[in-house]
Amino acid sequence: MKNFAEELVYWYLRFNGFYPLTNFVLHRQGLRDNHQSADADLLAVRPKFVSEDVGGEHRDEEIFRHFSPLTNIGLICEVKSGNQVNWERLYLQREDRISYCLRRIGFFSENKVRHHTEILKSHQVSKGQFHEVGKLLVTKRQMNIPGFICLSMDHVEAFIMKRIDLFPHEKGGAKLHFDSDMIQYMIWKRGI
Q: According to the lineage, what is the superkingdom (predicted)?
């Protein structure tokens, strides 16, 4: 089950045209510390031609500026809602977890996973011919951690609220169809 911060990021990604998967289990057989399984908070994929009548191209440039236009995008996301973030303990800096997630996203052949893993160990984005994958870190406060696209929880929330404000009729009319108490509340809070 996703926590409130992961749920907020889930909807941020959805409102930006991504198809997110929450709490993706990383089975211990593929991990360096073979004694326990783990998870990636979110994996997300956005096909290059995705479109939606409601919202169109109102996407957040804070994330899309890291990617080439008209490319298939994959994201491996880590969400930290606490006051302190120990950047040395971020799981998405670990080679085994990055390669596991890359295999699961499925953009790259097995012989290219190692190459893209090496790049993502120290860079925000790895670019292939047709696909690009980035590491997204969302934290309570804005941070600048090398190797991650960094966003704050405030930024994520503000983007969602802006989308609700831009499309009050559409979002309000669908309020009870969103599979999220949080989004329903945010739409209600706006008086829609």
A: Bacteria
